[in-house]
Amino acid sequence: MMNHFTPGFKHQQGSALTMMIVALFFGGLLTLALKLGPAYLDDFTIQEALENLENTEGLSKMGPAQVRGVINKQLSVNNVRGFDAKNITVEKDGDSVLLNVDYEVRNNLFGNVDTVVHFQHEYEFKGQ
To answer: Which pTM does this prediction carry?
Structure first.
């Protein structure tokens, strides 16, 4: 029996499979970027809000609850909603204020697969 397939047919099958694999790979990367991107953008906004505390008058005279209140106001203005100010530890030593930020963001990727992104920052403000 004679085979009437053209020689390029197998090459076309391989390229279609390759294109499908490449599309799935880049689709997966795009899904990751869309799920993880907002967490990193919010963290960047949180860092900016905490760095702006340097310009706050009387920061060293405030109590921990007042410092958290100032931070909550800045985060509310910048539309950061999923962050809890309880993740900020405020320590005072004389005129210096030490802030430790330690939190994680969990997102559902698909089905029962989740992502966990952990952020940790430390800031020290002296003599305000």
So the answer is: 0.76
